[in-house]
Design goal:
The complex is a heterodimer of chains A (577) and B (159).
Chain A: H1 3-13, E1 18-22, H2 28-35, E2 41-44, H3 48-62, E3 66-70, H4 74-77, H5 80-88, E4 93-99, H6 115-119, E5 125-128, H7 135-147, E6 154-159, H8 160-164, H9 189-201, E7 205-209, H10 211-216, H11 219-229, E8 233-235, E9 250-252, H12 260-268, E10 271-275, H13 281-284, E11 295-300, E12 314-317, H14 320-327, H15 338-349, H16 364-374, E13 380-383, H17 387-395, E14 404-405, H18 416-426, E15 432-437, H19 438-441, H20 447-453, E16 459-464, H21 469-478, H22 513-519, E17 523-527, H23 533-542, E18 547-552
Parallel strand pairs in A: 1-2, 1-3, 3-4, 4-6, 5-6, 7-8, 7-10, 8-9, 10-11, 11-12, 13-14, 13-15, 15-16, 16-18, 17-18
Chain B: E1 2-11, H1 14-26, E2 30-38, E3 44-53, H2 55-67, E4 73-76, E5 83-93, H3 99-109, E6 112-116, E7 121-127, H4 129-139, E8 144-149, E9 153-156
Antiparallel strand pairs in B: 1-3, 1-4, 2-3, 5-7, 5-8, 5-9, 6-7
Classes of the chains: A alpha/beta (577), B alpha+beta (159).
Chain lengths: 577, 159
């Protein structure tokens, strides 16, 4: 068998049924081999970054390993943002990049780039295949590393001569040979006992859940845990959906744009139990004042996360699902107590509001709210990065795990559409909506054609405020309203330090997104009127193929609540309403 | 800022060294010296590193080094008295006129005279890092032309 055939067979053995990719000189043999197999659906994206994000979206939605194959040189470098995105959010993807011939490596051959060196700092692990005999074991190990322990991206750099070389005795290995890699799954019973005691004795415990709940597949266990103990829970952006947003113990997303109930509870609790969360700066805000009244307990599969940002009093290293299952029988059932009444009162006092009735322009929050009401519980939402992402986190009713695909760690604009594509390929029967801003959507807009041609029925909702809204919001609040280069309509005649839309602003928004959609074979809809939001959404959702719905929203709307940078988590700006 | 001596056990592959150095760089770690050499098992290498950093930062780095899929073992021996450590120094001294005083130092420190020419004396010394520091300090008046030191190597004691 040739190296390319071995690769394809190995991928099949690992259960891969779809690959996102882009061919090029050094991966022709691989794409050739792929074209002779029925079991693997190969989706040709229009850019390698799209392929990497699509594999990532597929992995986030399914929990399986997403696979992306690209060519050497620029093909490989174009995946870098995608790999880094997956690394920051612990998503299992495998990036297979072609490489120039083994003998040409290091001689600056055409389309040669040191992918092993480039990928190293942004991967969980990476391989450069040097001999064909190594190939089967490398693939086996790549999948094992990507999906086990704390998941993450793995890069395989594969020289073209190896893909055409032959190996006589090919057998896909059953085991790996990684003596230095042994993720801790089962936690130390002593650590668990300490945590159980702390929970049983806490007066004001609070669970701070993160993406690890979803990564570990522990949503049901967390739900059982909070329902038994009546401990309120806050969930980060990466963990949203692991407990339904309308659950009575759910206090909201914490952090910079967190709900006041979540943020106040964090600084008021006496035991903060972090479950698969990493005390990210967007959650903790000012570390000096963060959860100062609480003992910190941290359950994580990655020992390097313990004590990284916040000093931990109780640490449990292990797989979350395993840890909770072990803890459950030892935990005392809780009653609705003083602490619950307090957090519940906070939740009721600080509900998120917007006032569409008093606005002639569409409010972005209203669009998210309507989407949330109109879709069924199976819907998958992908987002890009910016204001729309935060509004989606705050105003959408997240009901199920693996249903919100968003770049939380790296904050990658342009992630949404390709990620939604990946999810839609995995679940063609489910509604997949990519909620985007007008800035973000343009960063991977070429994938509209991929959706149209492959009949991928992604529904794209663009909240167009003609600004790079989140940056503009920071400029408004912290940079004296100087909207330097955040207005997408700004032309050569505009004042350099523009501070908002002028009455006679001569510029129109470019590109015309509806026309772009239609040029790509995607249905385009647009509205500027609040009264038409529902009808546009309904039309979009009932359309069979891909649709782009553009909502011209109020340009200067801000995301609130907000903790200004450097401030404490409870120093929230609540907004005007 | 503290000095930490770390021993990393790895399989004999150059890519692993790149990965380790890359990780140290990405964490803003200040590597003072690094030695890598095979052990009694030719497939296993031990890297001895001396790094500077605050305790929490070094702790994080050690955990992340441990997380790498191909490191076999990472230990910080800085505060472990159960390790025997040695360093090698090669030094060239200029002031040939005071050779008798230099020889006296060589004898006192149980160093070795490696080479002597009309212009300089070359000495080698093996010992603890502090012994080497002191030797260099005492040689300074005689004009040190050049010196190289290996960095610390360590082996666990029998206790």
């Amino acid at each position: 068998m040739t190296g390319a055939q071995i690769l394809v067979d190995s991928l099949k053995k690992e259960g891969v049924d779809v690959i996102f990719g882009y061919p090029g000189g050094s991966v022709i043999p691989i794409f050739d081999a792929l074209s002779h197999t029925k079991e693997i659906n190969v989706i040709l994206t229009r850019h390698e970054q799209g392929a990497a994000h699509a594999a990532d979206g597929y992995a986030r939605a399914t929990g399986k390993v997403g696979v992306c194959i690209v060519t050497s040189g620029p093909g490989a470098t174009n995946t870098i943002t995608g790999i880094a995105t997956a690394k920051m959010d612990s998503i299992p993807i495998i990036i297979i990049s072609g490489q120039v011939q083994t003998k040409a490596i290091g001689f600056d051959a055409f389309q040669e780039v040191n992918m092993a060196g480039l990928a190293m700092p942004i991967c969980k692990h990476n391989f450069l295949v040097k001999k064909i005999d190594e190939l089967p074991l490398i693939i086996k190990e790549a999948f094992h590393i990507a999906r086990s322990g704390r998941p993450g991206p793995v890069s395989i750099d594969l020289p073209v001569d190896i893909t055409i070389a032959s190996l006589r005795n090919y057998n896909y290995p059953k085991t790996t040979s990684l003596p230095g890699y042994k993720p801790t799954i089962k936690a130390n019973p002593h650590q668990i006992k300490k945590l159980v005691e702390a929970i049983n004795h806490a007066q004001r415990p609070l669970i701070y859940g993160g993406g690890g709940i979803i990564g570990s597949g522990a949503s049901q266990e967390v739900l059982n845990l909070i329902e038994k103990t009546k401990i309120p829970i806050v969930i980060t952006l990466m963990g949203l959906g692991s407990v339904p947003s309308d659950h009575r113990l759910f206090l909201g997303m914490p952090g910079m744009h967190g709900k006041p109930s979540a943020n106040y509870a964090m600084n008021d609790c006496d035991l903060l139990i972090a479950l698969g969360a990493r005390f990210d700066d967007r959650v903790t805000c000012n570390l000096k004042t963060f959860a100062k009244r609480a003992k910190i307990a941290h359950v994580d599969i990655d020992p390097a996360e313990i004590g990284k940002n916040v000093k931990t009093d109780i640490s449990v290293i292990g797989d979350l699902k395993n840890v909770i299952t072990t803890m459950m029988p030892l935990l005392k059932p809780g009653k609705w107590n003083e602490w619950n009444r307090k957090t519940d009162a906070l939740k009721k006092k600080y509900t998120l509001k917007y006032n569409q009735k008093q606005n002639e322009e569409i409010l972005p929050q209203y669009v998210i709210d309507r989407i949330s009401h109109l879709v069924d519980t199976d819907t998958i939402i992908a987002t890009d990065v910016g204001q729309h992402q935060m509004w989606t986190a705050l105003f959408f009713n997240h009901r199920k795990p693996r249903s919100l695909l968003t770049s939380g760690g790296l904050g990658t604009m342009g992630f949404g559409l390709p990620a939604a594509m990946g999810a839609s390929i995995a679940y063609p029967e489910r509604t997949v909506i990519s909620i985007s801003g007008d800035g973000s959507i343009q960063m991977n807009i070429q994938e509209l054609a991929t959706c149209a041609i492959n009949k991928i029925p992604v529904k794209i909702a663009v909240l167009n405020n003609s600004y790079l809204g989140m940056v503009r919001q920071w400029q408004e609040l912290f940079w004296k309203g100087n909207y330097a280069k955040t207005c997408l309509k700004q032309g050569p005649d505009c004042p350099k330090n523009c501070s908002g839309p002028r009455k006679n602003c001569p510029y129109v928004y470019r590109p015309n997104l509806v026309k772009v959609a239609e040029a790509n074979g995607v249905k385009g809809l647009r509205t500027e009127k609040p009264s038409e939001v529902d009808s546009v959404l309904e039309e979009g959702l009932k359309t069979r193929g891909p649709v782009l719905m553009e909502f011209m929203v109020k340009p200067l709307e801000n995301v609130y609540p907000m903790v200004p940078p450097g401030k404490s988590i409870d120093e929230l700006i609540l907004g005007k309403d | 800022m503290q000095k930490h001596t770390i021993i990393i056990t790895i399989p004999n592959q150059i890519t692993i060294l790149t990965r380790i150095i890359g990780l140290l760089c990405s964490k803003g770690c200040n590597v003072k010296n690094i030695i890598g050499a095979p052990t009694e098992n030719p497939d296993i290498y031990k890297l001895h590193l001396e790094i500077h950093g605050s305790k929490p930062r070094v702790e994080l780095i050690i955990k992340q080094l441990n997380n790498l899929a191909d490191t076999l073992k990472v230990v910080d021996i800085s505060h472990n008295t159960n390790y025997i450590s040695r360093e090698l120094l090669l030094v060239k001294v200029n002031d040939i006129n005071k050779s008798s005083e230099i020889f006296q130092l060589i004898n006192t420190f149980k160093a070795k005279l490696v080479d002597i020419t009309r212009t300089d004396i070359t000495i080698d010394l093996t010992g603890s890092s502090s012994k080497i520091d002191r030797f260099i300090d005492l040689l300074k008046p005689y004009g040190i032309k050049e010196f190289v030191r290996s960095g610390k190597l360590a082996l666990k004691g029998n206790q």
